[in-house]
Amino acid sequence: MEAEEVKQKFAGMVGEPIVNVVEKGSIKRYAYAVEDPNPLYYDEEYAARSRYGTVIAPPGFFGWPAKPGPMLPKLMLDLLNGLKEAGYPNLLDGGIELEFMVPIRAGDVLVSSPKIMDVNERTTKAGTKMVFGTIETTYINQNGDTVAKARQNLICLPGA
Description:
The chain contains four helices and six strands. About 25% of the residues are buried. By secondary structure, the chain is of the alpha+beta class.
């Protein structure tokens, strides 16, 4: 399979939804782990008096999967395997962009749906071919509100 075939096969494909549960204790542990002192993430009395009325999650915390499963969504694994078959087995993390719409609150149940937005092959000035992929994951809460979008950028390099 060539890089263009990978693009045709995967671009626009949507993965299986994943359900995440946002627990108050997990929000606190995450805030402590990233050393974020904002009391909205761990002080229940302070958060209750805020405009949110409860503890909210720090940026980037989307809860934990409601049921055990693989670390990476199947859609991403399928894309990476397709790129590996096309001669691009080496993966670099190209970063992630987060867009927040609605605060994530303790008790929220989020459904995330990954979608492959783009797959493009480019040639560097040195003549090396690389493949860039973008996966956008949309997080929707139990009320039907889109709370956030995450755009993950992948860079795949050819094998040596």
